[in-house]
Amino acid sequence: MTDLRTETLQAFSAVYGGAAASLWSAPGRVNLIGEHTDYNEGFVFPFAIDRRTFAAIAPRTDGMARVASSFADEALEIPLADLAPERLSGWSAYPLGVAWALRETTRGRAAETGFDLFIHSDVPVGAGLSSSAAIESAVAVALDDLWDAGLDRRTLARVGQLAENKAVGAPTGIMDQSASLLGEADAGVFLDCRTLDAEVIPLGFDAADLVLLVMDTGVSHSHATGGYSARRASCEAGAKALGVEALRDLGVEDLARAREALDDETFRRVRHVVTEDQRVLDTVRTLRESGPLAIGDLLDASHRSMRDDFEISVPELDLAVETALSAGALGARMTGGGFGGAAIALTPRDLVSRVEFAVDGAFLEHGYTAPTTFPVRASEGARREQ
Ligand code: ADP
Ligand code: MG
Q: What is the DSSP letter of 50?
């Protein structure tokens, strides 16, 4: 970690000549439980991880916004006054989109100056750990300070989301930015996607010697986008047929009625969302009452529900989950949008190598490309580093 800090500051000086005025960082995130509940206005329970994106920044007096990253070769610059979503593209749409979104949000109340910004990160890109929220959140806290904007963390999460929705053009929710900005060490962020209320809940993984093992299958199916849209449409149709604003408004006790009213496929889509919302609530309650060793079954049930009812798993994800459980994980499930991506397994620290070894072996046996596996710990959210 120390290395990343130093590297970021050194790279800043190499690119821009002078020293950075301050250094900020924000983590990626993993979603412990609560999948496909966000757009149904339900509950999610992600945590910030120990992989971070660093942002070194210094003010400029000429009104230019300049950005560079160890991730990309070219440095880009644009006059602050010209920032607009339609003028941004590529990776710089993330940091410059945040600058635009912060201006939109403060409407001239902030002390806007030009800036030099350098980004450096160890959050893997596209592995389901939200490198996008990490870069947005790191830039959001850096600029909020540089411009003396004084926005609170919840508002900064909305700034990140606005940047991603408008400047990048990805219709994502607010979960990732909330986890990255509000996360705390060994704690999860329990988020109500309707009210946007967020509560930090201790996980107790460290004391119980548990880690969450991420198993990235590297699989990405071409029908992921279509499949995602189809699931959203089913959820909307189900809510409409049942006369509620969103599936959030249904409880497990409504499922008998739902079975009568809906065709089998729509019913199963609805059942996933309704039971998943309940599992998030149960996970939070179980952590409080019994501790982290007791949440494994909820993770397993979440996976079965996505596999059988929501039908968004793939054989590689099922294999990763089943193998991890056989090798000693306490609970495991696929995570993210589905049709590929990563699975997670709650694993006693001393069994991590055994689980990794078993999953590698099973993938080899099935002729699948070896997965990338790594443990993550729940860590502090965005912060000033220097
Ligand atoms: P993820 O699941 O990792 O969030 P996304 O596609 O949402 O995947 O976001 C990844 C994109 O975010 C990258 O393609 C790049 O444009 C931008 N990005 C993430 N991290 C960095 C970084 N360190 N430097 C520059 N751009 C980054
Ligand atoms: Mg992303």
A: E
Answer yes or no: is the C-beta of 119 below 6 A from any ligand 1 atom: yes
Q: Ligand nearest 127 Cα, by number?
A: 1
**H/E run at residue 287:** helix 264-289
Give the model's pLDDT for residue 222. 78
CATH code, residues 2-202+380-384:
3.30.230.10
pLDDT for 86: 96
Domain limits of the chain?
Answer: 2-202+380-384, 210-376
Residue 2: the pLDDT is 61
Q: Tell me if 266 CB under 6 Å of ligand 1.
A: no
Q: Give the pLDDT mean for 200-224.
A: 94
336 burial (CB, 10 Å; 0-12 / 13-18 / 19+) is buried
Q: How far is the CA of 170 from the centre of ligand 1 (A)?
A: 12
Q: Which residues contact 132 (CB under 8 A, 6 or more apart)?
A: 94, 164, 168, 170, 172, 176
Catalytic residue, candidates 38, 116, 144, 176: 176
CA angle 144, 149, 150 (to 5 degrees): 90
Q: How far apart are CA 129 and CA 256, in angstroms?
A: 36
Supply the pLDDT for residue 127: 83
- Would the CB of 72 count as within 6 Å of ligand 1? yes
Q: Is residue 196 within 8 Å of 42, Cβ to Cβ?
A: no
Instruction: Give pLDDT tens digits for 291-301.
Output: 999 999 999 99
Alpha-carbon distance of 49 to 29, in angstroms, equals 5
pLDDT digits (tens, 9 = 90+) for 35-78: 999 999 999 999 999 999 999 999 999 999 999 999 887 789 99
pLDDT interval class at 224 (50, 70, 90): confident
- Read off φ and ψ for residue 238, nearest 5 degrees: -65, -45
User: How are beta strands 114-121 and 64-69 bridged, if at all?
Assistant: parallel
Phi-psi region of 215 (alpha: psi -120 to 50; beta: other; left: phi over 0): beta
Provide the CATH number for the domain formed by 210-376 in this structure: 3.30.70.890
- Rounded Cα gap, residues 320 and 346, in angstroms: 13
β-bridge partners, 60: 114
Q: Three-state SS for 167?
A: helix
Label residue 251 by pLDDT band (50, 70, 90). Answer: very high
Sole residue written with tokens 């993330």 = 94
Q: Could you count the other beta carbons within 10 Å of the beta carbon of residue 91?
A: 18
